[in-house]
Design a protein that fits this description.
Length: about 90
């Protein structure tokens, strides 16, 4: 059975559609937007106001460990531990 002949208009397309952006391009565009947004003077001023007024405790709990390091957690265990060795 002979293979069908395709022209440029009838050829099956594979991959992303013509003109669509590559995933990396979309990610890079999103990252660029996020950096510009979160570094904007308007956002920083607004965030500072919310933190100082107590309306954004999640920002403090997110940024403090990132900037100062995670606080050391200690757990005290009481009781006895019995190990039995069988051979």
């Amino acid at each position: 059975m002979p293979r069908p002949k395709f022209t440029s208009e009838t050829a099956p397309r594979r991959g992303r559609p013509k003109g669509a952006k590559n995933k990396k391009t979309v990610e890079r565009d999103l990252m660029t937007w996020a950096v510009e947004f979160f570094n904007s003077e308007e956002y920083v001023t607004n965030a500072q106001g919310r933190i100082l007024s107590g309306k954004a405790p999640h920002l403090e709990s997110y940024w403090n460990p990132k900037l100062k390091g995670k606080p050391k957690e200690e757990t005290e265990v009481k009781g006895t531990l019995v190990l039995r060795w069988e051979s």
